[in-house]
Design brief:
This is Putative 3-methyladenine DNA glycosylase. The chain has three helices and eight strands; from the N terminus they run αβββββααβββ. By secondary structure, the chain is α+β, with helices and mostly antiparallel strands. Helix content is 11%, strand content 27%. The radius of gyration is 16 Å and the shape is globular. It has helices spanning 13-19, 108-114, 127-134, and strands at 24-29, 32-44, 73-78, 81-88, 95-104, 150-153, 161-164, 181-184.
Length: 202
């Protein structure tokens, strides 16, 4: 499999978030190759997006990679989970796209073991689940999506794309309602949406 070219990642963030759907996420591990079609993404639009880690132009040890060239890998920890993102936009414009869910393709026996032999639909239907299934860790922080062993390749066409609010960003003001989540319509591996909790100010 051939990695996508660096030019692919130069698309505007919202376009890239949709273009990622159907692409094949590949990890060449010591135990074998695991891969899955991307079926759900979330775009985070940098300094003006209250839900983004780089809101207000915050540049920290964690977010530093977001200020680099598009196509870098941005991983971060949430509780016990590793989440993985595609850095987007030009240098100094810290946008990123979270990969929320994938459809298992190659290495399914290894994925099953990595996910404690849970039912297949639960292996990769969430951002922390898919990294466990595919053996993705914080060690991938700052590497490039077009250089193995972790990379994106051409996958399959997606016939229908849906969009809606992002998940798990309840304390993000009006950004909680932005329709920056994209998914392959009716794909069974898309994560479950839970409406944000209402606050007295809404």
């Amino acid at each position: 499999m051939k990695p996508l070219s660096p030019e692919f990642y130069t698309l505007p963030t919202l376009e890239l978030a949709q273009a990622l759907l159907g692409k094949l996420l590949v990890h060449e591990t010591e135990q074998g190759i695991v891969s899955g079609y991307i079926v759900e993404t979330e775009a985070y639009m940098g300094p003006l997006d209250q839900a983004a880690h780089s809101f207000g132009g915050r540049k920290t040890k964690r977010t530093e990679v977001m200020f680099r060239e598009p196509g870098h890998i941005y991983t971060y920890q949430m509780h016990t989970h590793t989440l993985i993102n595609v850095v987007a936009e030009e240098v100094g414009a810290p946008h990123a796209i979270l990969i929320r869910a994938v459809e298992p393709v190659e290495g399914q026996d290894l994925m099953s073991r990595n996910r404690n032999n849970l039912p297949k639909k639960q292996w990769t239907n969430g951002p922390g689940k898919l990294t466990k299934a595919l053996g993705i860790t914080m060690e991938h922080y700052g590497t490039l999506w077009y250089e193995p062993p972790l990379y994106l390749a051409e996958g399959r066409e997606v016939s229908s794309i849906s969009s809606g609010p992002r998940i798990g960003i309840d304390n993000s003001g009006e950004a909680v309602h932005y329709p920056y989540r994209f998914w392959e319509t009716e794909n069974p591996y898309v994560s479950k949406y839970r409406a944000p909790k209402k606050t007295f100010s809404e």
